[in-house]
Amino acid sequence: MPLSEHEQRLLDQIEQALYAEDPKWANTVRIRDPRNHYKRRLVKASIGFLLGVVLLMVGVVSQLILLGVGGFVVMLLACLWGLSSWKKMNGFGDGSPSPAPGQPGAAPPGRPAGGRRGGPRPSFMERMEERWRRRHDER
Q1: Where exactly are the transmembrane stretches of this chain (predicted)?
Q2: CA–CA separation, 19 and 44 (whole Å)
Q3: How far apart are CA 85 and CA 49, in angstroms?
């Protein structure tokens, strides 16, 4: 849905104020692809996993139980961090479009698709857009 002229002007003013306040940060945010961020996190998680393996092995060989347990915990946390980054990088769990009515997985006719019980919750941006639309419809 395209923005109205008023909304576009407001967005341009906000962008200009942001660039004026902190141009380095604004440029960094504008040109970065979020997938690169998650790829970097995935590489860091892999390094963390390897570090955990090393700690676990050193703990087993030197018979230091706390070091071995610490290595296992580092491995576990690195796996969880890497898995969450991999999911976000590949787009799993971020509100894919709901199926059309009558198709498998669609909400029953009397219930909204994004209800509290069955469907996924709308994203933050979708909720903000809906509030914006309601605010302008009230005027």
Answers
A1: 42-58, 64-83
A2: 31
A3: 14
Degrees to nearest 5, angle at CA 123 with 116 and 21: 145
Residue at 117: amino acid letter:
R
Answer yes or no: are the C-beta atoms of 84 and 42 closer than 8 Å: no
For the segment 61-98, what is each residue's pLDDT rounded down to a tens digit? 999 999 999 999 999 999 999 998 888 878 775 544 44
Q: Are 54 and 21 in contact (CB under 8 A)?
A: no
The DSSP symbol for 112 reads -
Task: Give the count of beta carbons closer than 10 Å to the beta carbon of residue 57.
Answer: 13
Residue 103 burial by Cβ neighbours in a 10 Å radius (0-12, 13-18, 19+): exposed
* Sign of the torsion formed by the C-alpha atoms of 79, 81, 87 and 89: negative
Q: Find out whether 135 and 128 touch, Cβ atoms under 8 Å.
A: no
9 pLDDT band (50/70/90 cuts)?
Answer: confident
pTM summary value: 0.46
CA distance 128 to 130: 5
